[in-house]
Design goal:
Strand content: 15-25%
Mean pLDDT: 95
CATH architecture of the largest domain: 3-Layer(aba) Sandwich
CATH superfamily of the largest domain: P-loop containing nucleotide triphosphate hydrolases
Number of helices: 7
Family: Belongs to the ABC transporter superfamily.
Number of domains: 2
Low-confidence stretches: none
Organism: Nitratireductor indicus C115
Bound molecules: adenosine-5'-diphosphate
Number of strands: 9
Distance between the termini: 33 Å
Pfam families: ABC_tran (PF00005)
InterPro entries: AAA+_ATPase, ABC_SmlMolc_Importer, ABC_transporter-like_ATP-bd, ABC_transporter-like_CS, P-loop_NTPase
GO molecular function: ATP binding; ATP hydrolysis activity
CATH topology of the largest domain: Rossmann fold
């Protein structure tokens, strides 16, 4: 299906009149587009533009489509992008279950249905039964998995990942990569991955685009 997935159509981003990003790419459902490039190249800025939270110091044009729908003009909360950063950014004043409940779409109604979705989301990242835990008591790897479960519980239409593995040690990093890419394939989510790490790009297995190079 031609329109399935994420289509980045003629995106151009400039800072103080200088173009830093120019990109047209299609990311199929379950596939990963890896964005590499030196620090300051505009990788995070590209994610922010697609996510709908671009700082107004940038001028940007171009459009994004999800499954053929133009989402470029929608407010961030209506784009339904699942975003992960280097830091898991769990809400510290909420339990693990509270973090997930908060992220569930409002359309999922009823205490029982919502509780069940949280249970399933935690099962999906091998953290079943951890609802009551305080995020502060979790290991780094567990926090990363809660952050992933929270993003998936929100029923995103695509994943935008900004160095999501870079705080993890090598073993956890590999586990987490496999988990994220497996979930994306399972759910047919297109993924945009920003990373410095060649091994991340190799594990992603998709196209690689380098921005801010010498061209
Ligand atoms: P190319 O001609 O090199 O394939 P295109 O810019 O035509 O480059 O398209 C790149 C990819 O994006 C192709 O797989 C194409 O099918 C897909 N594509 C093109 N337009 C759209 C669209 N509006 N929505 C979703 N996918 C699209
Ligand atoms: P990357 O993620 O590739 O390291 P960024 O997207 O964070 O790069 O930044 C791209 C460029 O925009 C850099 O030159 C950075 O200094 C600049 N920049 C980022 N955020 C802002 C901002 N809020 N105001 C002004 N310049 C910014």
């Amino acid at each position: 299906m031609k329109d399935a997935g994420l289509f980045i159509d003629g995106v151009r981003i400039a800072l103080a009149g200088r173009e830093i990003v120019s990109l047209t790419r299609h990311v199929a459902p379950g596939a990963v587009l890896t964005v590499m490039g030196p620090s300051g190249a505009g990788k995070s800025t590209l994610l922010a533009f697609i996510g709908g939270f671009l700082d107004p110091v940038f001028s940007a044009s171009g459009r994004f489509f999800i499954d053929g729908q133009d989402i470029s003009a929608l407010p961030a909360e209506e784009r339904h992008m699942g975003i992960l950063f280097q830091d898991p950014l769990l809400f510290p004043h909420m339990s693990v279950g509270g973090n997930l409940l908060f992220a569930l779409p409002a359309a999922i109604r009823g205490r029982t249905a919502r509780k069940r979705q949280v249970e399933e989301a935690l099962q999906g990242v091998d953290l079943e039964g951890m609802e009551a835990r305080d995020p502060a008591t979790l290991s780094g790897g567990q926090k990363a998995r809660v952050a992933l479960a929270r993003v998936l519980a929100a029923h995103p239409r695509a994943l935008l990942l900004d160095e999501p593995f870079s705080k993890l040690d090598a073993a956890l990093r590999q586990q987490m990569r496999e988990l994220v890419f497996a979930k994306a394939r399972e759910r047919g989510l297109p993924v945009l991955l920003v990373t410095h790490d060649e091994a991340d790009a190799a594990a992603a297995g998709g196209d690689i685009v380098t921005i801010g190079g010498t061209e």
